Amino acid sequence: MKIKKLMVLPLILATFTSCELNHGTSGSLSNETTSQIEQSTTQEIDSRIVKLKVWCDESQTNFIEETVEKFKDIYPNVTFDFKIECVSVYEVLLRMESFFDSSADVFHFPVSDFTQLYKQGFLHDFNDYRSKKTLNSLGISSACLSGGQIYGIQYAIPYTSNTYFMYYDSNVYTKEDVKSVESMLKVNVSEKISSYKYNAAFNFADGWIGQSILYSSGATINKTTGSFDNAEQGASYLAKCAHNEKLLMAGGTTNIGVDAAAVVTGLWEAAEIKSKLGEGYACAPLPTLNFKDEEVPWKASGEYEMIGVKSHTQEFVYASRFALFLSSAEIQRDRFIRCGIAPTNEKTLEYPEVASCKEIVAQTQTLANTFNQPSTLYSKNVYWGFYPSFWSDLEVADTDEKVSIALQSFNNHLQQIFSSNI
């Protein structure tokens, strides 16, 4: 299951990104960041000692400590007692289950644990007026924020992502070419570079990327049966791509710069691709797809690590403000510089330290068009176990009828396994 890549992303990004990060500290907070979190900071007086515990990965301890000091500066009339503990995101759920009363007020966790944290009542929502107003002004897209929602209510804030976007050779494609798959396919790539046989490598044989075509076409998961509704257009598009000689239906990392002019993959392969493309190295959000002569966004899988607040915290006001503060553009920029962790906040692209990193720009822009995997269907291996056979059927489906049969067979398998796992 490709979601596992997210678990290691914060630790490997600084190594595998093509950007050269300056791990120095940043200056004082901008007025915008301060006003986003609290409009009456200098007037607010709290005679209590506000105690907050924060969990974070060991690699981010120094960054969190510095961020705490910046947060304190917003409230000069409030006395804080912050306790920072090193707890891996992988351990948060277990710690909550075992030691809930002494657990952190603010913590980081992976999307794979989101449903369980919610079901066990460990997460406080951000549904109060002040939090919702701040969330709307932060600069994180609604599609990205939806990754931290359950039944439309915000329970967590995505602060870094593991998704895919497009790398391409700028010696072959212009920025206009890569805005749509249709325009890319019109380019004669071998005319530009003789070794290129494929316009792009789109690994639709892999269910992690293949599912994106189904969701982009308007397909949804039936929560009762576990199967796809309205997936006919998406299945037909996948079949057409499988038979298109200009497209390579494989991973593509070994092909880009060799016999393919573009590839869809993620941040973990940035450095290798840059070394292959050299001066032609370029990145872009996913191009649009054409369904029935209409260009629609190609949606990527939204998988995140999140920031949460404990449901029974005694200091929700300040805990939620600190969580929101961590999600601001300025602080996400700092986290990227210090820890090499990709941001989710689109306003970070206004900072030159972020804007100069092509792959970070492309991924952050891609987050505006994402979908969230239904946890029940995927966690029980219902989808992953049957996508390969679905793809094999599509590879030989040369008529609409055969595509329909392949989709029906796929949905039948999903329904059978889904119902037996509920």
What does this structure look like?
- 41% of the residues lie in helices and 17% in strands.
- The protein is globular, with a radius of gyration of 23 Å.
- 47% of the residues are buried.
- The strands form 8 sheets. It has a 3-stranded antiparallel beta sheet with strand order 3-17-6. Strands 12-7-13 form a 3-stranded antiparallel beta sheet.
- It is of the alpha+beta class.
- Residues 1-12 have low confidence and may be disordered.
- α10 packs across α11 (232-242) and α18 runs antiparallel to α19.
- The protein contains 19 helices and 18 strands.
- β4 (149-150) and β5 (153-154) form a beta hairpin.
- It has helices at 4-16, 31-37, 61-74, 92-98, 114-119, 129-138, 142-145, 181-185, 189-192, 207-216, 232-242, 270-277, 316-326, 329-339, 352-355, 358-366, 375-379, 382-395, 400-421; strands at 46-56, 78-86, 106-110, 149-150, 153-154, 157-161, 165-169, 200-201, 220-221, 228-229, 247-248, 262-265, 281-284, 289-291, 294-296, 300-301, 304-309, 370-371.
* Number of beta strands: 18
Within the largest sheet, what's the order of strands?
A: 3-17-6
Average predicted confidence as pLDDT = 89
Using only C-alpha atoms, the radius of gyration works out to 23 Å
Number of helices: 19
Q: Helicity, in percent?
A: 40-55%
Contiguous low-pLDDT stretches (5 residues minimum) are 1-12
* Proportion of beta-strand residues: 15-25%
- In this structure, how is the largest beta sheet organized? 3 strands, antiparallel
Give the overall silhouette.
globular
**Distance from first to last alpha carbon:** 20 Å
Structural class: alpha+beta
